[in-house]
Amino acid sequence: MSVWFITGSSRGLGLEITRAALAAGHQVVATARKADTVRERFPDADDTLLTVPLDVTDPHSIQTSVDAAVERFGRIDVLVNNAGTGLLAAVEESDDAAVRALYETNVFGPLAVQRAVLPVLRRQRSGHVINISSIVGFATAPGWGVYASTKFAVEGFTETLHTELAPLGIHVTLVEPGFFRTDFLDPTSLHTGPGTIDDYAPTVGAMRTAAASLNHTQPGDPVKAARAIVEMAAAPEPPLRLPLGADTLQAFDAKLSTFHKEMDSWRHVALATDH
Q1: Helix orientation angle between 145-165 and 109-124, rounded to the nearest 10 degrees
Q2: For labelling alongside 198, which of 7, 56, 69, 189 has CA 20 to 30 A away?
Q3: What are the tens digits of pLDDT across the range 11-24?
C-alpha cells in the first residue's frame, strides 16, 4: 500500500487516477480547490481517502495540504502533479495576463508542490514524482504554443529532477497524454484568449474548430490511462517518459523523424563551428 498525493483530483484525469489508486488498494490524498466535490465523488470511501483543499498558486494552501497528508498517513509515496489549465490561441494572440496566469498554474504550481513534498520523500529515501505533461509538451501544433511552452518547461525541470533524485532512491516520471475524453476542451478548462487575428484563421482558427468538434469524442480513455499510471508506478524501474495514446505516439514519431532529417542535413554546419 502506497500513499498517493494527487492535485487536481476533482475531475478529468486527476479524478480517474484517484479512483484507480483507491481501487488498487492505495491510500490517497485527493486535493482540489473545492475538496468537497472530490469527497462527493466517493460517498462510500473509507479512511483510505483524505480530501484536502489545495490551490497550486497558493504556497500556504500547498504546505497545509502536505502537512495534513503526513499527519494522517505518516508519509507520501507518490506525488501526482496533475492540476493545470489550458490556452488555445496563437502565440501573438496570447496577452500578458493570460500567459502569466497559465504559467502560475502549470509551471510555478507543480514546482511549488514539489518543493513542499520533496523534503518528505528525501527523508524517506523513497518515493515517486509523476508530473503530467502533454502530447504538446514534446510535439506542439498551431494554437497550442503558449500552453505547450508551459509543458516544455515541465519537461525540462522534470528531466533534470530525474537525474537529481535518482541517487536518493526517488523515481521521476513524465506522463504525456494525447487527447483523452475529459472536459479539458470545455471552456471551464480551456481558454481561448481575449481576441483573434484573421491572419491565423487557416492555422489557429482551424485548430479551434477541430478542438470544438473533438470535445467529448477524444480517442483516449481516461479510465485506461489512470490504470496505466497506477500500474506504471508499481514497476521496479518506472520510465522517465510515459506517452499515452496512439495520437501521442504518432506525433512523437513524426517529430523525431523530422528532427533527425534536419539534424543530418545541417550536421556539417554544426561541426564547422568548433575551434
Answers
A1: 10
A2: 189
A3: 999 999 999 999 99
